[in-house]
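Reviewer 2 asked us to include a model.

Predict the structure of this chain.
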Amino acid sequence: MSVSERSVWVQLIVMPVVGIVYFSVVLTRAASTPVADVSWIAPMIWAMSIVVVGIIAGTIASAIGSAIAQAAQGNEPDLEEGDVRDKEIERIGNLKGQFFTGIGTVAVIVLCMLRVDVFWIANAMFLAGLLSGIHGAIAKVIAYRRGF
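Predicted model (structure tokens):
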């Protein structure tokens, strides 16, 4: 398994978990407080930071774990960066992930036109980014496992 594929699997774990935790915290607050008063900025910054650091740390940890497991079996650790196939899978996954980016962009524009509270605009944009990343990662995993 290449480093690129490991990174995709880490994304597929980190992004949904962080998204669920973030929206659980923020929507719980919104249930008992007017949305204009909900503290969402710090949790969103934390969530975005955790996604970035979690993917980087998870990818590094999985590469190290894989190298240790291969060395324990007497094999040469394979820390392959990737090849043409990995680049093509990356491209395809990113294209498929852009679907939610487009939908999110339209949603944010509509919310702005309706002059809704910035809480809803920011959270719609955050959700679109998460869904885009998750959808792209799913497309990449399918491409790795089944082919193009």
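The first helix runs from residue 3 to 32. The mean pLDDT is 90. We have added this to the supplementary material.
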